[in-house]
Design goal:
Structural class of chain B: mainly alpha
Distance between the termini of chain A: 18 Å
Largest sheet of chain B: none
Shape of chain A: elongated
Number of strands of chain A: 0
Oligomer: heterodimer
Number of helices of chain A: 13
Largest interface: A-B, 43 and 49 residues
Radius of gyration of chain B: 24 Å
Shape of chain B: flat
Radius of gyration of chain A: 22 Å
Helix content of chain A: over 70%
Strand content of chain A: under 5%
């Protein structure tokens, strides 16, 4: 943050962490570059699912049920109901990634607002952080179970549970870095010009806290996918016939001994997503703030 | 020390109250009316009204909350809608297997995780370190159900070494520990990565400390330096972090129990939720939450007990 403080002395503050320098530094690491490429491919595959899929998401043909991967015309085989695995995977990827993005966005935004509020208005700091500590003392799975008990299973249940579990983590990280920024002279200077609180937070505080926020969001995305697919696997998430990777793995359990591909392929995709985001998050952290490297 | 313990206990009270309140409110928002359920499908409106009165459901919400707390103190968590068994009875039967699974998983994964982390930190930057780091990143990305299904497929089905459904009996019986092996391997397997990573970081930090340099300077062997001076001090953050990871372990336990049909609280909770058995769901979630508060409390106290520097803070 020290180098940032001189650069941002002028009122024009917004310095996005994805400025060319960061991206270049990120791509210099081969593992990070590969992880980024994988992420891009996965996101594109999810976005383009309706066009890439050979069949409709619910099209089934029981005569080809349990077809093994490698069969001509059905590269990844078919599931128990004779649905093309490629189609199911593409649509499953869509639901899973959507679940992750929604959870991180929702939980991250609320968490960041709490974090900024705690750092900026010291009077509410104690109260807000005690509430965050309480939330933090319960694992995501408990939120998932409790919300599913109230609202019933569903993809929104999972998004809500994962968001709630993300709020305190994000709040702590944002508060921590915001407190450092708050001590900088330019904040004092901006305040002296009579700037309103909202403007001060938006123009000067928030832009300088973005690095840790982005690193956390990236790493959290991987965790959220892991947790969310586990909740889906339990049957608390997307309900049949919606394709979702965790739910697909759960459906595949029934065929494990004679058609293992139905469970294994979605598991591998989940593993790939999480691994790519974990590697990307680590690399992003190193690129944005080498001091955090262990 | 005593003051610290008391302070922590006091701080747990509002959390406990909050959990109970949420648990109570949970029952208020669910669509089913407990009086109607208890009265049965053939009951007349008068009978339902009478039961409603007997159960205190006609009272204001805060009185009901008081009644709920009173029943809770007597160990009454209600009766399952599905099979009419008292919730406490089912919970009593499932807590043991869940604790068994969690302890068995920790028992083998923590030593391995700590050993891997220490080795990686000691030979920092070496090929060994990079392997451990890569393994822990990859291991931390594996869904617990994936590991479980793979173990079932290979060890249980292909090689037929170990059973993979249900609990064979108490831990001291051969069937008991054989049936525990695969679930414990699964759950523990996902725990090695975070433990190794945390240990590595902690040992790296301690290896640079002055007392380690002093230990080296006075001619102690590397073995003594690492084991007695570095690792011992690194254990403080590791113990705390492991404690904080218990939540992560619980999430894994719920999934592991489902994969292996292990008769634990997690599987009971999921089953209750999926079959809309509200009293059972409420009871299981309540017990899991209470478990959490206790674990956090113990970790907090242990942290201070391990690190005398923390006393008085």
């Amino acid at each position: 943050m020290a180098e940032a403080s001189t650069a941002v002395a002028t009122p024009v503050a917004p310095s996005m962490p994805k400025r060319p320098g960061t991206l270049k530094r990120l791509l210099r690491e081969p593992i990070a570059a590969i992880a980024l490429l994988v992420v891009v491919i996965l996101v594109l595959a999810a976005l383009l699912a309706p066009w890439l899929s050979p069949t409709g998401p619910y099209d089934n043909d029981l005569s080809v049920s349990l077809t093994v991967p490698g069969t001509p015309g059905m590269m990844l085989g078919a599931d128990g109901q004779g649905r093309n695995m490629i189609t199911r995977l593409l649509y499953g990827l869509r639901s899973t990634l959507l679940m992750g993005v929604a959870s991180v966005l929702l939980g991250g935004t609320v968490g960041a607002l709490v974090g900024f509020a705690a750092a900026f208005y010291r009077r509410v700091d104690g109260l807000l952080m005690r509430i965050m500590d309480m939330l933090l003392s319960f694992p995501a799975i408990l939120f998932g179970l409790a919300i599913a008990a109230i609202m019933g299973p569903g993809i929104f249940t999972i998004i809500l549970a994962l968001s709630i579990a993300t709020v305190p983590l994000m709040a702590r990280i944002v508060r921590g870095s915001a407190l450092v920024v708050m001590r900088q002279d330019y904040i004092e200077a901006a305040r002296a010009t009579g700037m309103s609180d909202a403007r001060l937070i938006m123009r000067h505080l928030a832009p300088n806290c973005l690095s840790p926020l982005f690193v956390f969001a990236t790493l959290r995305f991987g965790q959220v996918i892991l947790l969310g697919s586990a909740l889906s696997f339990l049957g608390l998430g997307a309900q049949a016939p919606t394709a979702e990777l965790g739910a697909m793995a759960s459906e595949g359990r029934d065929f494990l001994f004679f058609a293992p591909h139905i469970a294994v392929i979605p598991c591998l995709v989940i593993f790939t997503i999480v691994l790519a985001f974990n590697l990307l998050g680590d690399a992003l952290r190193d690129a944005l703030d080498p001091r955090l490297r262990v | 020390m005593l003051r610290h313990v008391l302070q922590r206990l006091l701080m747990a009270v509002p959390v406990l109250f909050g959990v109970l309140l949420i648990g109570f409110l949970l029952m208020q928002v669910v669509p089913t009316d407990p009086a109607t359920v208890r009265a049965g499908p053939t009951a007349t409106a008068d009978v339902i009204a009478q039961i409603r009165k007997d159960m205190g459901l006609d009272q204001p919400l805060y009185v009901q909350f008081g009644l709920y707390m009173w029943r809770l103190l007597q160990g009454d968590l209600g009766v399952s809608i599905i099979n009419n068994v008292p919730v406490t009875q089912e919970l009593g039967a499932t807590i043991g297997p869940t604790l068994e699974l969690m302890f068995a998983s920790l028992f083998w994964s923590i030593p391995i995780g700590i050993a891997l982390g220490t080795i990686a930190a000691y030979w920092r930057g070496s090929l060994l370190d990079r392997c451990v780091t890569a393994l822990s990143v990859a291991g931390g990305s594996v869904p617990v159900f994936f590991l479980g299904l793979m173990l079932i497929w290979f060890v249980g089905f292909q090689w037929q070494w170990l059973p993979f459904t249900g609990r064979g009996g108490p831990l001291w019986s051969v069937d008991g520990w054989r049936s525990l092996a695969l679930p414990a391997l699964t759950l523990g397997g996902t725990f090695i990565a975070p433990v190794a990573r945390m240990t590595r970081t902690a040992v790296l930090e301690v290896m640079g400390a002055e007392h380690v340099r002093t230990a080296r300077a006075k001619g102690l062997g590397e073995y003594a330096v690492v084991l007695h001076h570095a690792l011992r001090n690194a254990m403080i953050p590791v113990v705390t972090l492991i404690g904080l990871q218990i939540g992560f372990l619980l999430g894994g336990a719920v999934v592991t129990e489902t994969v292996f049909s292990w008769p634990g609280v997690g599987r009971l909770a999921v089953g209750a939720i999926l079959s809309s058995d509200f009293p059972m769901a409420q009871g299981t979630i309540l017990v899991l939450s209470l478990g959490f508060i206790v674990v956090n409390l113990v970790v907090d106290i242990l942290y201070v007990a391990l690190d005398p520097r923390m006393r008085g803070h």
